[in-house]
Design brief:
The complex is a heterodimer of chains A (168) and B (208). In chain A, 53% of the residues lie in helices and 26% in strands. Chain A has three helices and five strands. In chain A, strands 1-2-3-4-5 form a five-stranded antiparallel sheet, with helices on both faces. The model of chain A has no long low-confidence stretch (mean pLDDT 80). In chain B, strands 1-2 form a two-stranded antiparallel sheet. The longest helix of chain B has 31 residues. The radius of gyration of chain B is 19 Å and the shape is globular. Chain B starts with a helix and ends in a 9-residue tail after the last helix. The chains are: A alpha+beta (168), B mainly alpha (208).
Chain lengths: 168, 208
């Protein structure tokens, strides 16, 4: 091997080393970010569900569904999905049911709507979470809202999906 | 960073807030998210511009941006779950405008400190604009004031005559667009005045 071949070989090795260092650092940073994400995502799920359950219960108590009591939560989607939450509930002495908090897009922006659902009465709209005052009255009753009625019709499927995930 | 660039970045960031619900708590959260993302992206841009990572700067920044945004959304869902459920995809929108801000403020040849300073100027304008935008919509549109409490977002009803009024329009998304235009005009005027005052040869007039 001549001197020039050796120099070229050393240059190639140095370039390979630099590239490996760069990609190694890239992988390390990306893996670190993902690990941090998983470390925060998994333990936060229980606390999030409890806190949302309390808010949903407050809506039920304020809107004439006092007999409904939330007793636990079901997983409604992927761990990083925030579209809807499903809670197990009891309806006084009448048996069990579910409470669903789903984000509904309105002309006033997105708001979480709270529904109650049991096999006897079907899905009923309880009220809007995070909303009081005149806008709550404008959209909160939901009796004639097409959007609310659309989500009401989706509630049985959301509950069925959550139950399937919980059992599976 | 020039006035025009600062204003363009601030305008892009403010318009990203239009789909969000017009509540003050949501505005504060989104403005803080934007500030954190824009400043950290501007700083990381400088860090990754050095060897051996300069060729991988863009994918690395994007991967980190996505991770940080998802991480922040998880933290929001942990501490203010009702607001996180309400915001939904709106939580991810500041990422777009913050990346743009970091890219514009970190042009080739600009030192990292200057890039961070430029991003911070945009953040200041966005924060002032966002607080005004969401406060006006919350108070005048919804007739409420929202804030962070021990159990997530809390609200107090300020005005409720029992009927919707003309100001309720400000609570709607079309009202938000109108309001964003008004705030941006005010912001442009204020930034121009500040720039003129900063470039004025007459400084410290009180001492004369």
């Amino acid at each position: 091997m001549t001197d020039s071949d050796g120099a070229a070989e050393r240059e190639r090795s140095a370039k390979t080393y630099e590239a490996l260092k760069a990609y190694g650092l890239f992988a390390l940073v990306a893996l670190g970010a993902m690990a941090l994400l998983v470390a925060v995502a998994l333990p936060s799920e229980g606390r999030r569900a409890r806190s949302l359950g309390e808010k949903a219960q407050a809506v039920l108590d304020a809107r004439g569904f006092e007999s409904w009591k939330i007793i636990g939560s079901e997983s409604a989607g992927a761990p990083l999905s925030f579209g809807a939450d499903v809670f197990r509930a009891t309806d006084g002495g009448k048996g069990g049911g579910f409470v669903v908090a789903a984000r509904v897009q309105t002309i006033y922006g997105p708001f979480p709507a709270v529904f109650v659902y049991d096999s006897a009465g079907g899905a009923r709209f309880a009220g809007m979470m995070c909303l009081d005052g005149r806008v709550a009255r404008a959209i909160g009753d939901g009796a004639d809202s097409k959007r609310i009625n659309f989500w009401k019709s989706r509630v049985p499927a959301i509950v069925a999906e959550a139950r399937r995930k919980e059992e599976g | 960073m020039s006035f025009k660039k600062t204003f363009s970045c601030a305008a892009a960031a403010l318009l990203m807030f239009v789909p969000a619900p017009g509540r003050l708590a949501a505005g504060v959260l989104l403005a803080l998210e934007f500030d954190f993302l824009a400043i950290s992206m501007a700083a990381l841009n400088g860090v990754f511009s050095r060897p051996p990572l300069e060729d991988l700067k863009e994918p690395l920044l994007l991967a980190l941006l996505v991770s940080i945004v998802i991480l922040l959304s998880r933290l929001f869902s942990l501490f203010v779950p009702d607001l996180a459920l309400q915001l939904g995809f709106a939580m991810y929108l500041p990422a777009v405008s913050s990346f743009l801000t970091a890219e514009v403020s970190s042009n080739a040849g600009v030192k990292t400190e200057d890039a961070v300073r430029g991003a911070a100027r945009v953040c200041a304008a966005v924060s002032v604009g966002a607080v005004l935008f969401f406060l006006l919509r919350d108070v005048a549109g919804f007739g409420t004031i929202t804030y962070f409490g021990a159990h997530g977002m809390e609200q107090k009803v300020l005005f409720d005559s029992g009927e919707t009024c003309a100001l309720t329009f400000l609570a709607t998304i079309p009202g938000a667009l109108l309001m964003a235009g008004a705030i941006l005009s005010l912001l442009a005027l204020a930034m121009k005045k500040i720039a003129i005052a900063g470039n004025s040869p007459v400084r410290g007039g009180a001492d004369d």
